[in-house]
Amino acid sequence: MALPPSLYRKHNSFVDIRAKEHDQNNLLSDRILNVSKRPDFVSRLSASHQLILSRALNHLEGESEAGEQIFHLSMSALHEIERLSDEDLPRYLAHRFRYEIFPATRELDDFPPYLQIEPSSVCNYRCVFCYETDKSFTRKSNGHMGHMPTHLFREIIDQAVGRVEFISLASRGEPLLCPNIQEILAYTRDKFLGLKLNTNASLLDEHICHAILQSGVRTLVISADAASEPLYSQLRVNGKLDKVLENVRKFKKIKELHYPDSPLITRVSGVKYSVKQNLGDMEGVWGDLVDQVAFVSYNPWENVYISEPNEVSLPCSDLWRRMFVWWDGRVNPCDVDYKSSLSVGGLPDKSLAELWVSEEYTKLRQQHQQLKRANMEPCKRCVVT
Question: How far is CA 78 from CA 21, 234, 377, in A?
């Protein structure tokens, strides 16, 4: 087992990521800069987002202010950009800048840079590094388990369109367990530039494959941590590697046969939990099936409510980066707090925009900025910065 990190950098949690060959040369850089200055495209942005785009371009041209965190485009961001139309590129850059830089500068505007929506908190796996192993969380009588109704999902999406581009459909559970997941996916079509769906792929049948490929999902993240048995099922308890591989092959075949022009990126992403895990082995098994293979750092959140308080005092960047919306409309500032001790309210009592700048959220940010994490649960036991 890997030792938990002393700090968990949420902004850059990749241990390593490898991708198939794609264009990351000067031609791509030239396209980004040239297209993002076209008045016919820039004018489609709001006035505030035009200013953000200008800041992003200044960074990319090496003209950022002294001492300011540098905005740069990661390999995964470049891979996304390659699949964008020219007219969408300025919008993407403005929102990528919000996601990358606002948490570092502690800036807020009228909506979170990233929205994480939970179709289901229920999971069919009991991964050893996940809070689904906490029986006080999964016990139905405690009220944490459920699936998001379609009408609530539509309300969330309607509030988000035009205000955020980066959204994940996933959080505490397995999204494909949501009985109405196909309706949910259908409602996302043509709405966002950076929509991700995270799944363990155990339920990835033919109908779901088509639903994903017809939706607005731009990145399908398949959660898998090993290239062979018995390690896979030791880490992803209740899972079967053969079944997941079969489902991913099916998805690839359907995509190539029926959706050859789809911009969707596929990624296998595992949690680096054990010294037995090897990215080379992962590439050998998964590399021909997906576009990217990655490991993310292990975050010891599965026991956060009972672990010893630590000495981490740095503010948590997620307070400025993302908002989590649980299946029942409750809004939480993070997913380490998987039992919602820090919830700031929810829908329909307030809108997402109102909650983002609410008194409750503001107090959380102030406590962190004043280096008072030790006064808050479970912040005083968490290593995320």
Answer: 12, 34, 38
Q: Of 15-19, 170-174, 278-282, give the lowest mean pLDDT range.
A: 15-19
CB neighbours of 357 closer than 8 A, spacing ≥ 6? 108, 110
What are the DSSP E strand ranges found in the chain? 14-19, 114-117, 166-169, 194-199, 219-223, 265-272, 292-297, 322-325, 330-332, 345-346
Distances (CA, A) of 96 to 42, 170, 216, 362, 369: 15, 20, 18, 23, 24
Whole-model pTM: value is 0.93
Query: Is 95:166 a contact under the CB 8 Å cutoff?
Result: yes
Q: Give dist(CA 97, CA 366) in Å, integer.
A: 23
Q: In the β-sheet with 114-117, what is the strand arrangement from edge to edge?
A: 14-19, 292-297, 265-272, 219-223, 194-199, 166-169, 114-117, 322-325, 330-332, 345-346
Q: What span, in angstroms and rounded, lies between the C-alpha atoms of 120 and 147?
A: 4
